[in-house]
Amino acid sequence: MRETLLNFIFPPHCPRCHAYVEERGLWCPHCLQETLKLQRLPLKVPMQKAIAEAWAFGVYRGGLQSIIKALKYRGRRSTLPYIDTLLRTGLADKQLRHILSGVDMAVAVPLYPAKEKQRGFNQAELIFKNFLQAADIPLTRQLVRLRATVSMYQLSEQERRQNLQNAFAVTAAKAVTGKNILLVDDILTTGATLHECAKVLKAAGAGTIYALVLASDHR
């Protein structure tokens, strides 16, 4: 009843083209097809030593940028049903399901505690929570961010490495030893953050590590 009333007062619409849809969280068929571009991302040779494969559900500037920014910087959890629909649709991909079938746990890239407190959530955890439940993969906090890092948007590759050096640690090595891990985050830009997290997990004894992000322009 409440959902029906909400739909009447605030008619649900596609998050990309704003056409009316039947239920909140749905996309119009055309925009869902155009936005969901599940693909394997290329990794530089040094990254391949820590990350077996990296995947993204779509292109950041291909319809997901506004959704991620609304959640990440304006705290709009109303974007999550649309993200859930996109990820749930992508879960039907056979290659992705094959990768997920060999994963023991998922680990989200952590925020610095003060940053998470300020924001009120870790966006990577919110984005993938329902998806991981559907895939029967436990989401665990096996990584912590030891210090605040600066925004890496305009940093060079070397500056990014320096910025992330010794920024992460494993909470309990026994919990990750020999485990195949799915690292999740909202965006992959250069992959520096995911690479650093993967290296820390590998050093603690983790097995195969995969990376999965909602969006990336990395091609």
What does this structure look like?
The chain is α/β, with parallel strands linked by helices and 219 residues long. 42% of the residues lie in helices and 17% in strands. Helix 11 (192-203) links the parallel strand 7 and strand 8. Helix 5 (80-90) packs across helix 8. The chain starts with a helix and ends with a strand.
Quick structural summary:
By secondary structure, this protein is an alpha/beta fold.
Describe the strand arrangement of the main beta sheet, using strand numbers. Answer: 1-2-8-7-3-4
Regarding quaternary structure, what we see is single chain
Shape: globular
Chain-averaged pLDDT = 92
Beta percentage is 15-25%
Profile the largest sheet: 6 strands, mixed
Give the C-alpha Rg: 18 Å
Q: Helical element count?
A: 11
Q: Spans of 5+ residues with little confidence (pLDDT < 50)? A: none
| Helix content class | 40-55%
> What distance lies between the first and last C-alpha atoms, to the nearest angstrom?
45 Å
Topology:
Layout: H1 2-9, H2 29-35, E1 39-41, H3 45-48, E2 53-58, H4 65-74, H5 80-90, H6 94-101, E3 105-108, H7 113-119, H8 123-134, E4 139-140, E5 143-145, H9 157-164, E6 168-170, H10 173-176, E7 181-188, H11 192-203, E8 209-216
Parallel strand pairs: 2-8, 3-4, 3-7, 7-8
Antiparallel strand pairs: 1-2, 5-6
